[in-house]
Amino acid sequence: MLEFLRGRDVLVAGWGVSGRSLVEPLRDIGAHPVVTDGGAAALAEAAGLGLEVATSVELESADLGRFALVITSPGWRPDSPVLVHAVTEGIPVWGDVEFAWWVDQARLYGPVRKWLVITGTNGKTTTTNMTHAILRAAGIASVACGNIGLPILDALRRSPGPQVLAVELSSFQLHWAPSVRPEAGVVLNVAEDHLDWHGGLDAYAAAKARALVGRVGVVGLDDPVAASLARKSKARRTVGFRIGVPADGELGVVDGKLLDRAFTKAAILAEVGDISPPGPSGVADALAAAALTRSIDVAPQFVREGLVEHRVGPHRAAFVRELGGVEFIDDSKATNPHAARSSILAHPSVVWVAGGQLKGASVEDLVEEVAERLVGAVLIGVDAPVVAAALARHAPEVPVVEVQARDDAAMSESGPEAVAERSHGGPSLRPDGRSRADAVMAEAVRLAAGLCTAGDTVLLAPAAASLDMFTDYTHRGRSFADAVNALQESDIGRRS
Fold first, then answer.
1. Hey, which of 131, 182, 376, 435 would disulfide with 351, CB 3.0 to 4.6 Å?
2. DSSP string over 69-104
3. Strands laid side by side in the 250-254 sheet
4. Tens-digit pLDDT profile for residues 364-394
5. Alpha helices in 144-234 (DSSP H)
6. Collapsed DSSP state (helix, strand, coil) of residue 453
7. Rounded to an integer, what distance in angstroms lies between the CA atom of residue 105 and that of residue 162?
């Protein structure tokens, strides 16, 4: 399948993590990689490594006939001018995951691996790590890769090589990987996200459904869109999981125990209390990981061992601190309303720290559903007014404070009608050395603590992306944790 690349030029579109991972495999095949990127620094870095480079502007009008293939970064939209130009000239466009699939099928780096693919709007990374933990417990050589950080090609090139890949894939990656046929794939859930990239929810869901084309497909039955994909699944067998009593052919929960009724008559897999993170979303992710691993005959005792061993990663409903009877939880990874919903519903009494870039997603249904659990809200970021308006409509009794960042980074509190933070200052620094975003977060945490009494939870679950203020969601989570750790017990309940 890859012989057509030998001795030919291949255009690598995007010099990010995935782009860098392509270079050595292309050379191993005998192809000549050429790198393009919209950033001058990225091209300079690639050129410094001895690679041929071309600017994307140059390529938009150039004859691309020299290229046998274009391999795109998953973040490049299908309407990117270079990609459109390539398609017009009849040049195939693959994603890096598509290329990795064919590298594996060609046995370039050893025997073909079993791919367990994990996708969904939320819970992908937790489920991927759980899957990897179960495989390790079973003594199966495996690696977690894909959207989780390690490119699949780097995983394939490891020596000794893994037998099984736990592959987290985003909707972008799946869009560009039509040939992938996993041993098993799961769609955890589907909610509004990345609609600007895909052009709508239907196209976004269709990209996610590409995980359901292998030997076994798995869907989250508690999510209506994911559940609907079961009817469209192209997998040879499709099973589901739910937070409730499972029917035949499903995994679920009975009397506090995770139960498999899909791959055996009935097998207890783990206790709900074993699962990290706790709460419905963590249990759902555990059921998904169990379904994937049970589909390749991993025994129930290893499912339990892996889930007991697994602990949630940073910024994913991670406990930061208890102070004055108040818990502080960092779920900065809750970058859309669906993720924030699961996070809020795991706690009975929440002061919600939220806001950022909603990317066109609606928060109306979220606020309406969680309103009874909210005892306060502190809002930051460019779309804070949108969240504030939803709270005013659906939770008018909940105290709401918006935090404004001024040019001098002085903070002001002015109640529910406060002007929202609209700064795009990112990491620009104040005279005291803190970034403006960190200063906003410090004030937000101080105000949130003041809205609390013992028994409450201050929860960072932004329901929005972070790039209007922070470097990324990890920066936002670290900023929250730093602000929490700077609190004194006297800060709790000052406004009660």
1. 376
2. EEEE-TTS-TT-HHHHHHHHTT--EEEHHHHHHHHH
3. 142-146, 164-168, 114-119, 184-187, 216-220, 237-241, 250-254, 257-260, 267-271
4. 999 999 999 999 999 999 999 999 999 999 9
5. 152-156, 171-175, 195-198, 201-208, 224-228
6. coil
7. 14
